[in-house]
Amino acid sequence: MCNLYKVKSSHTEVADFFDAVAEDFGTNTPEEIYPGYPTIVVADGRLHSMVWGFPLAQTGAKGQPLKPRPVNNTRTDKVKSFFWRDSFENRRCLIPVSTFAEAEGERGRMTRTWFSLPDAPLFATAGIWRESDEWGAVCSMLMTDANAQVAPVHNRMPVILARESWDRWLGGTPSEAYDLCIPYQGKLALDRTDEPWFKRRGG
């Protein structure tokens, strides 16, 4: 599953790329996006700031409430479940991405392997969103089976949408949207790094 991605473009550049109206965000969103971080989302023709991850209530060993956990990935075989169904049917969005990372290597020594579209500063991944009491507007990224390039690293990957599919994802029927939830058919650029997977966020 994808638990880290980057948006290297400014809000204005993202808005121009998606032909969307930019909100006044007040502050910049970080380049590296982790679960629970604010990110940029395209919905209803506008650029919005949302938290990456739907809040999932948690309790401690003694039943005490704990901080919610951000559930940032939505498996395509689970979109009809109670947790995701209403958002998938009624509130789909585009999540702009420059590159996404998967962990590779043995436990304790995993490194970051990045995937992007060749010569493309941005691309759209399929997302869903809703309002939450805990964090305001939140989003989650759709995950499908990995294609041949991602499979040696991880068995799932984000649903990457071709530009001609954006409108169908946003405004089509649930059945039409679901038909788009397939492994990416194009070529991906791969960058294997020696960056440790677990490192200080923001470092």
Question: Explain this structure to me?
Answer:
Strand 4 (38-43) and strand 5 (46-52) form a beta hairpin. Strands 2, 4, 5, 8, 9, 12, 13, 14 and 15 form a nine-stranded mixed β-sheet that branches. Strands 3-1-10-11-16 form a five-stranded antiparallel β-sheet, with no helix packed on it. It has a two-stranded antiparallel sheet with strand order 6-7. The chain has a domain at 5-56 and 68-99 and 118-145 and 155-183: hypothetical protein yedk fold (Alpha-Beta Complex). The protein has helices spanning 11-17, 85-90, 166-171, 174-178; strands spanning 5-6, 21-22, 32-33, 38-43, 46-52, 54-59, 65-71, 73-75, 92-97, 99-104, 111-116, 123-132, 136-145, 156-158, 160-161, 189-196. The protein has 203 residues and is mostly beta strands. It is 12% helix and 42% strand. It contains four helices and 16 strands.
Short description:
The protein is built from four helices and 16 strands.
